[in-house]
Design goal:
By secondary structure, this protein is α/β, with parallel strands linked by helices. Helix content is 40%, strand content 16%. It has seven helices and six strands. The protein has a six-stranded mixed sheet with strand order 3-2-4-1-5-6. It is globular. 38% of the residues are buried. Its EC number is 5.4.2.11.
Amino acid sequence: MCLLRHGESLWNRENRFTGWVDVPLTDKGREEAIRAGLLLRGYRFDVAYTSRLERAIETLELVMLAMGYRVPVIKDEHLNERHYGDLQGLNKDEIAKTYGEEQVRLWRRSFRARPPNGESLEDTQRRTVPFFKNTILLDLVNGKNVLVVAHGNSLRSIIMYLEDVPEDKVPQLEIPTGQPIVYDVYWDQEAHMLKIRSKSVLR
């Protein structure tokens, strides 16, 4: 299984909160997506999952183009980025001047802090992990190789579940754009749970 955050978007470059707003990739983001696809050429995927947001969908399209083959694609809003509520579209540095750097850090990196009218990472996990268990996990149990192209926070929430990351370690969990994270996973019949044999970050 491979988890991949989309390539750099326009609002990533402009240091804005993006959330559920559809923002295109930059030229750098497209280059990151193509490079990710080249790094993944040695792998064979059977199915791909992505969010309903254009930056993730375009990244996946470029990845498949670079890999040289296509797979069935499932698009689902459960994999959308965390919804940043009233912060969407606003510059992070400007918001820090208004609310203070520590508050903005909590909104961005903590597990439970919820921005005004938005989602906490905990809220995000409440939709991503059930989706993972009910759909993606079934493909993995059936022996399929799965590619998931999504977003920084939707992937953070899934990685928390996969790697059993404690809440106090979440602020240090960074997911760079366009960098494939490949897991060798298997289903432990006795424990009735997914286990990880190895993890590698392709650079």
